[in-house]
Design a protein that fits this description.
The protein has one domain: Tetratricopeptide repeat domain (Serine Threonine Protein Phosphatase 5, Tetratricopeptide repeat, Alpha Horseshoe). About 50% of the residues lie in helices and about 15% in strands. The protein has 14 helices and 11 strands. The N and C termini lie far apart (about 60 Å).
Length: about 450
């Protein structure tokens, strides 16, 4: 009876952890198969899963992403809004969840997302609003993203600071005619990229040059012009601009890693389980775009390497996760000793098995995000359609899609991904027709 009392907590945790682990395993399997199966098939399979309340945010983030890729912008927005509400309600976790996570395993804690995920949910929602034609809704999300990044900002840490989201904010402000706010956002995107030691994509360089020139910020313009080795190229009266987004690949899944750690108080090695990422094998593939009747092609460039952000978030949380895992391992080690006293070798063996099996690393993540977010920006004659050869898609010329409200400048924004031939656009258009004679490289 004493042994059963000792084993009650780990056995309960084992049962709960098994159910939790099944959901994580299923979602990870779907994520791994997403590049070959595609968003539509993966979405159907994901909807067959009934997640626990603790996994609800992760489930909704992934389902909302698949709906976005499939062109269901209303459904995507509903899922992502629900996920956002759950994530931001979890700042104060329940006592019971904290206790369960501390004594059994981290999967018994509700999923609240990593810092990068808490920011990216605003970006995904903003794009959903934008490609639905709701520029004001997109602007509100970018204001919320700014609040979230300020909350997550911690001294010199870059945790939760995403250049791609700052760039998107700048674009939305620019579309809305708010050049001062656009310049602030583009500048912040530039500062984040420089702090990380990565290269500035041409789309951001063009944005910095063009907007600083239009604002007559001569000192800042000269700085960027000197650094990038070129001048601003502003559209003429018969020209406009296209900004193209490309989501490439699918971010890696977390794996479980078992480590041996020396515990000085017990004077022995104990086994702990931690989440980990395998070495990244991702190599960006770029989207080629061109204007009709032009032989010159432009490629999208990486502005956010999600593979790197995911690993940074994990590393930033590593010390806290290791401390919690060590506390659990020590408690379970002591439980085994107590079980041996009460039930002999058999009791100790059962306690040891229960302790090992109940310990699971939290491998949940928003794992249907792309491996990278890429952008391109180009000046285009108003009468020249935009072609995406790899998708066999042609978007109407800027003079056919109409100007966005509150401005006379002509802009077009498009978004494609590597998983299907879906192309979203702003101002919104019907699904573009395939271009006859062009191969589809999907």
């Amino acid at each position: 009876m004493g042994v059963l009392r000792i084993l009650a907590a780990p056995l309960l945790g084992l049962c709960l952890g098994f159910l939790q682990g099944c959901t994580s395993w299923q979602i990870n399997e779907l994520s791994s198969a997403l590049p070959s199966a595609g968003p539509e098939v993966t979405l159907k399979k994901l909807e067959e899963i009934d997640p626990s309340d603790r996994d609800r945010a992760q489930y909704l983030l992934n389902r909302g992403t698949l709906k976005f890729y499939s062109g269901d912008l209303d459904g995507s927005r509903q899922d992502l809004e629900q996920a956002k509400a759950i994530m931001f309600s979890l700042d104060a976790l329940s006592v019971s969840e904290n206790f369960a996570a501390l004594t059994t395993n981290e999967t018994l804690r509700s999923y609240a997302g990593t810092p990068s995920e808490q920011v990216l949910v605003h970006a995904m929602l903003a794009q959903g609003y934008l490609f639905s034609g709701n520029l004001d809704g997109a602007r509100v999300e970018m204001l919320q993203a700014d609040v979230t990044m300020k909350r997550l900002g911690d001294g010199d840490s870059l945790g939760g600071q995403l250049a791609s989201v700052r760039f998107l904010a700048g674009l939305i402000y620019e579309l809305n005619g708010e050049l001062d706010n656009a310049m602030i956002s583009y500048r912040k995107a530039y500062e984040i990229i420089k702090a990380r030691g990565t290269s500035v994509p041409e789309a951001l360089a063009t944005s910095l040059l063009n907007v600083s020139s239009r604002l007559n910020n001569d000192e800042e313009y000269d700085k960027y012009s000197s650094e990038f080795g070129r001048k601003a190229v502003l559209p003429k009266a018969d020209e406009g601009e296209w900004i193209v987004y490309y989501h490439d690949g699918v971010v890696s899944n977390k794996k479980e890693a078992r480590l041996s750690v020396f515990e000085p108080k017990l004077k022995t090695l104990i086994s702990v389980v931690m989440p980990d990422y395998p070495p990244s094998r991702y190599y960006p593939r770029h989207l080629s775009i061109k204007l009709q009747n032009s032989h010159q092609q432009m490629r999208t460039e990486v502005i956010e390497l999600i593979e790197a952000r995911a690993r940074e978030d994990l590393a930033d949380n590593n010390a806290k996760a290791m401390a919690a895992a060590t506390l659990r391992a020590v408690a379970k080690f002591q439980m085994v000793k107590e079980a041996q006293k009460s039930g002999g070798d058999l009791g100790g063996l059962l306690a040891n098995i229960a302790g090992v099996l109940s310990e699971q690393a939290d491998v949940r993540s928003w794992n249907m995000l792309p491996s990278s977010i890429q952008v391109a920006r180009l000046v285009a004659p108003l009468n020249a359609p935009l072609q995406i050869p790899g998708k066999n898609i042609e978007l109407p010329a800027l003079n056919e899609i109409g100007a966005a409200p509150k401005k006379t400048r002509r802009y077009g924004v498009a978004s494609a991904n590597s998983l299907n031939s879906q192309v979203l656009s702003y101002p919104p258009q019907k699904r573009p027709e395939p271009v006859e004679g062009q191969p589809n490289e999907q």
